[in-house]
Design goal:
The chain has helices at about 1-10, 90-100, 130-150, 155-170, 205-210, 225-230, 240-260, 265-280, 295-310, 330-345, and strands spanning about 25-35, 40-45, 45-50, 50-70, 75-80, 85, 110-120, 180-185, 195-200, 210-215, 315, 325, 350-355, 360-365. The longest helix has 21 residues, at about 240-260. The chain is built from ten helices and 14 strands. It binds (3R)-3-hydroxy-3-methyl-5-(phosphonooxy)pentanoic acid (PMV).
Length: about 375
């Protein structure tokens, strides 16, 4: 297994790096994403058990500035500042990330880093920042590599950023580009890879390029079960094999839908994926439930509204209680009215976030 991994990832080990810069700073903004076909279950080295696909978001993002200074000793050395304040809680995850990526960015131990990071969405909103956060940090590290090796192509830059981000958090591999990103080897998707996300390579109907995602904040607390624990519970899960097949076949089913924009089938696939993800959690050993009573209230209201108002709106869920409401832009006014009239009461402090499909990460000037 390790051997195959090493062969496949060789292209990401830099061959020659120019003299390392003494100090400097780089900054990137990376978006969050919402999976339509879910990744749940992985193998060694962050290899996904099935392929997944997501909408890149626009308003929910992380901005990270990486300041670097050469040092002599050979150990990882970094400080993290989250929303202006020194933060110790993120250090173990970043330390683990550095350890995992070191062989691909061998200069990491040559620097002391100051990592300044902030999210556009409220802290403790229950929205995972690991995808946008790991992607922004991976892009900053790549930007530093580019200073040493200016010849790397933009294609390689994006691919390696996704490759590194994946090693921080699997779904982060889908948070570099937009509007629709696929990650995971799939027999019917040419160019797909377990190692990095790729722009969805087939036709995308206009309706999906401006799709709306309104995120209802049902529970802003810390999740009782982390994603990494959840992924691990797929090992030996009685339904694992069928679930991985289901996800891959849902990707096949989405192909014509992305192209022709047939929303009825889109809705069926997306809701099936969300509920299957949570069904896996409920049938793990030990089992757990991340949905809250208000999550179910909202789902039922959406079903009722869709039937009565004949508006093509659907929901999806992350590994948490919050509900993502997905709908075409042309229905924004109606759906927002429905949300305000009927759903805000189920949100913690009436909070929700309006987002939409976005185009991907952007470099930020540090001048
Ligand atoms: O990237 P991770 O390890 O936090 O896992 C993300 C899992 C889901 O958000 C539930 C699904 C997905 O594909 O994004």
């Amino acid at each position: 297994m390790r051997k195959i991994f090493e062969m496949k990832v060789k292209e990401f080990v830099p061959q020659q790096l120019k003299p390392l810069p003494e100090n400097g700073k780089v900054a990137w903004q990376a978006p969050s994403n919402i999976a339509l076909v879910k990744y749940w279950g992985k193998r060694e080295n962050q290899i996904p058990a099935n392929a997944s696909v997501s909408f890149t978001l626009s308003n929910c993002h992380t901005q990270t500035r990486l300041e670097f200074k050469r040092k002599i000793d050979k150990s990882f050395s970094f400080e993290v500042y989250f929303e202006g304040e020194k933060n110790k809680a993120f250090k173990p995850k970043i330390q683990q990330f550095f350890e995992r990526i070191e062989e691909f960015v061998p200069f990491l131990k040559d620097y002391h880093f100051k990592i300044y990071t902030e999210n556009s969405f409220p802290h403790s909103s229950g929205i995972a920042s690991s995808a946008s956060g790991m992607s922004a940090l991976a892009l900053c590290i790549l930007e530093l590599e580019k200073e040493m090796n200016p010849k790397i192509s933009s294609e390689y830059f994006i691919k390696k950023a996704s490759f590194l981000a994946r090693l921080g958090s699997g779904s982060a591999s889908r948070s570099v580009e937009g509007p629709i990103i696929e990650w995971g080897l799939h027999e019917n998707i040419a160019g797909s890879s377990d190692f990095f996300g790729v722009k969805y390579p087939f036709g995308i109907n206009e309706v999906f390029k401006s799709f709306q995602d309104t995120i209802l904040l049902v529970d802003k607390g810390q999740k009782q079960v982390s994603s990494s624990v959840g992924h691990n519970l797929m090992h030996g899960h009685p339904f694992a094999k069928a679930r991985f097949q289901q996800a891959n076949s849902n990707l096949d089913r989405l192909k014509p839908v992305f192209e022709n924009g047939k929303l009825e089938t889109f809705i069926e696939i997306v809701e099936n994926e969300a509920l299957s993800l949570h069904a896996m959690m409920m049938s793990s050993t030990p089992y757990f439930i991340l949905m809250k009573p208000n999550t179910l209230e909202i789902i039922n209201k959406i079903w009722q509204y869709r039937k009565e108002a004949k508006v093509p709106v659907c929901f999806t869920l992350d590994a948490g209680a919050n509900v993502h409401i997905l709908y075409p832009k042309e229905y924004s006014e109606q759906v927002l009215e429905f949300i305000k009239d009927e759903l805000v009461g189920y949100c913690e402090k009436g909070q929700y976030i309006c987002d939409e499909v976005g185009t991907g990460a952007e470099r930020i000037s540090t001048e």
